[in-house]
Design goal:
alpha+beta
Length: 132
């Protein structure tokens, strides 16, 4: 007696396991890329906001009359310029004599914020000359 061989249609269990594994790897890669892109976007946003806050403080200091810009260190937190940064962000303004021109003043502003467990800083420097 001759047995008739039937052609079965469908996938074998091995093919299903391989396909599922490849699909899982593809999805995991896409999710990883999305998380990395989100972190990069958030980091860029915070850097931009910290730069804006530092620039704002420099401009606030520069519009004062030269004699009213006092030497020393001033800290700011809870300030409106830090509203778009993570909670706990702080800033520091240091006014000192400019090294290249003793009559001028150097303004250094540093904004510090934390993203996750990483502390980030943005610093800016400006100079103010006395009016003749």
């Amino acid at each position: 007696m001759a047995l008739k061989q039937q052609s079965e249609k469908g996938f074998t269990i091995v093919e299903i396991i391989v396909a599922a594994t490849l699909m899982t790897l593809a999805v995991a890669t896409l999710v990883s890329m999305m998380v990395a892109a989100q972190y990069a976007q958030r980091n860029a946003y915070y850097t931009s906001e910290a730069s804006r806050a530092a620039f704002s403080k420099i401009e606030e200091t520069k519009v004062k009359p030269f004699k009213d810009i006092s030497m020393g260190t001033t800290y700011f937190s809870g300030d409106q310029s830090l509203n778009n940064l993570p909670a706990g962000s702080v800033g520091q303004i240091v006014v000192s004599p400019a090294s290249f021109a003793p009559d001028s003043k150097q303004i250094d502003v540093t904004v510090t914020y934390t993203v996750g467990t990483v502390q980030k800083k943005v610093s800016m420097t400006a100079y103010v000359d006395p009016l003749p």
